[in-house]
Amino acid sequence: MITTWLVIGTAAFGGGFAFNKLFPSDYKWFMRLRRPRWLTFEKAIPFIWIFIFICGITSAAALWEAQPSTLSTWLLMASYAIVEFAILSYTPVMTRLRNVRAGVFSGAIGFILGLVLTTQVWQISSLAGWLLMPYLLWSPIGTYVTWVMVRLNPSQI
Q1: What CA–CA distance (Å, rounded) separates 64 from 122?
Q2: 139 in Cβ contact with 111 (< 8 Å)
Q3: If DSSP codes are grouped into helix, strand and coil, which group holds residue 69?
Q4: What is the pLDDT of residue 81?
Q5: What CA–CA distance (Å, rounded) separates 82 from 31?
Q6: What Rg do the C-alpha atoms of the chain give, in angstroms?
Q7: Which of 34, 102, 133, 152 is the most buried (most CB within 10 A)?
């Protein structure tokens, strides 16, 4: 399991790193946006995402260990990558378009893809399915925060 986790983790990290280099974000623009007053946990968000990505990598490794090298497992591994890139696209899509509403749509699409992946994964490994739950719980919160930001930043939609 350690070797599987390292291979999948390296691929996820490498893919994420390459994606961020190919599609940089305008963080200065994003940081100037108004946020809801109740968003007191913003400094914890990077740590929440690190936890979610570790759970996702562990989920993929558990799935691979449960059913290694089958066509359906390879297709699910591709689905994990698609969900990862959907998650990673949130900030570049929103900041490059300078449109907060685009962030809402990006977050919603990521959640839907994650939900579909979870339903497929759960049929093979309940552990792998449970490990995707942190993303399914957090994604709607992040999308809701962005939706509130749309109303707080009407000139940025």
Answers
A1: 13
A2: yes
A3: coil
A4: 94
A5: 27
A6: 16
A7: 102
Residue that has been written with the tokens 């907060």 in this structure: 100
Q: What is the mean pLDDT of residues 45-51?
A: 94
pTM score over 0.70: yes
- Higher-confidence residue of 157 and 57: namely 57
Other Cβ atoms closer than 10 A to 108: 15
SS (H, E, C) 84-116: HHHHHHHHHHHHHHCCHHHHHHHHHHHHHHHHH
CA dihedral 83, 89, 93, 94 (to 10 degrees): 100
* Dihedral class, residue 135 (left if φ above 0, else alpha if ψ from -120 to 50, else beta): alpha
AA letter at 100: V
Q: Which residue reads 């698609």 in tokens?
A: 82
